[in-house]
Amino acid sequence: MSTADAPAAPTNPDEPLDLAGIGIGPFNLSLAALAHPLTSLRCAFYDQRPAFHWHPGLLIDGATLQVPFLADLVTLADPASPWSFLNYLKTRERLFPFYFAERFHIHRAEYDAYCRWVSENLPTLHFGHQIDAVRWNPERDAFEIDFTHLAPDGEAQALGRTHARNLVLGIGTTPHIPVPLRPLADAPTVPVIHSANYLDHRDTLLAADHLTVIGAGQSGAEIFLDQLRNRPTGREQLHWLARTPAFAPMEYSKLGLEHFTPDYTRYFHALPERVRDALVPGQWQLHKGIDHDTLAAIHDELYRRTLHGGWPDATLTPGVSVRTAGRVGTTKVELHLDHTQQGTRSRLTTDAVVLATGYRERRLDTLLAALDPYIRRDAAERPRIDPHHRVVLDPTVTGSLYVQNAETHTHGVGAPDLGLAAWRSATILNSLTGTTPYPLPERTAFTTFGLPQPPPTPAPPPTPAPPSSHATDTPTRRRPRHRRAPTPPPQNTGTPSRVNRQSTEANTDPSITFAS
Which of the chain's ends, N or C, has fewer CB atoms near its CB within 10 Å? Predict the structure, then answer.
């Protein structure tokens, strides 16, 4: 689709946008794609990067998504959208090869290429725009957004400002580096890098005599497998550490996956705050485990290296955390380890470290500092989020502030899952327009999360006042209460009586027996 199909530009450039988006990751890209045909909705999305790229440092050859291709930007909300993955294949004349390949889980590199195709054809996206500040302007009843237009090399070119009645944040996450390893990650002489930058340093890491991978999620497993496959047999010198008690598979059973449905998200959101906070730590295997095929490939590679005798020089140790770390000389790292179950400590010397330690939500405090007085917070001082993904604001703010990167404590394990991108974006658009351009099903799971609440007990009818003595001369008569005569015990005739099953099931009085 070309830019000629885009909604018409506003006649008044000073009129606030209906919706402005900050950040262009998969979730806001989904929102922009679903908003594109809604010609009455004026939108613009901003990102400081020069173009769309999805985890470029982890596009390892052969690595696949952990969700099916139907979890693209639009299909689960609008299967007929021109921005679907299948339509992308059609425009590339690759639909039949994909059909014959019978792939349900596509390559990460292919998903990245698909998203870039969408981003290059949506006219509402503005890359190279760094958002500097967001304020509420009560005179215009709109959010005021200051930005810096960046050149391709990142240099500031010009300052700008726009206004929007509603705002959606989709600024994503940032790589997490544990505190004990932060000084080493900043040191230039020793390769201690986050997995997000793996491909940029892959050759250096392959050349290291000994490599340690920290983290038992999918990224750590894929990096360990890639290094294992490309190191000589018997001289691998690999160590894989994890805090989890095992290198555990991701929950991928059919009913288990229903934790990633809108039904579960709604259920989780309705739970009390203390219950949500208690649930999240126990859900790690639902979204932080390792794909079954990746675990099988690692085991197969390790086993293959034993076929001619000997064992691979690779050590996998779960249940271990890094207490402290330091440099040995100028080229080595010493990790001080705690084993949780044994209660023991040890040291490991290595030449390079890959931190597959996940990501954390980007802090909104700096960007939204001017909005802080309007934001309502929970007991833990986190912004409160309603079921429509809106931050609860002071009633004096007439616009809505939506979040596409709501923390897991608010929306449960489904929050970071790509499968919910289209559904959440459709929810925002339905709420924003006050209509249902994307009708969403009420029921999305076979599992019913939670028990139905009993209807409220009706109040007892008021006790009638006793009749006054002068109301009637006829005394009130009571209907006599008839008592059922007790049923005599059955006579033992030696022949068992036959019971009429239909009559017995229909009758609810155990004192009556029907005999044929």
Answer: C
503 pLDDT exceeds 60? no
- Contacts (Cβ under 8 Å, ≥6 apart) of 431: 388, 389, 390, 400
Burial label for 373, CB within 10 Å (0-12, 13-18, 19+), is exposed
Proportion of the chain in helix, strand, coil states, percent, rounded to 5 = 30, 20, 50
Contacts of 317 (CB under 8 A, 6+ apart): 239, 240, 241, 242
Say how far apart CA 402 and CA 388 lie, in whole Å.
8
Contact between residue 265 and residue 447 where contact means Cβ atoms under 8 Å apart? no
The residues that bridge with 238 in the sheet, in sequence order, are 211, 314
Alpha carbon distance 434, 450 (integer Å): 29
- Is the pLDDT score of 269 beyond 90? no
pTM, to two decimals = 0.83
Residue with the bigger pLDDT between 432 and 127: it is 127
Lookup result for tokens 């290291």? 208
Closest CA to 125 of 134, 133, 116: 116
Q: What is the pLDDT of residues 110-122, one digit of tens each?
A: 999 999 999 999 9
Largest CA distance in the chain: 113
**Residue found under tokens 């698909």:** 114
Question: Is the confidence at residue 293, as pLDDT, over 80?
Answer: yes
Q: In the predicted model, what is the mean pLDDT of residues 435-444?
A: 90
Report the C-alpha gap between 391 and 403 in whole angstroms. 7
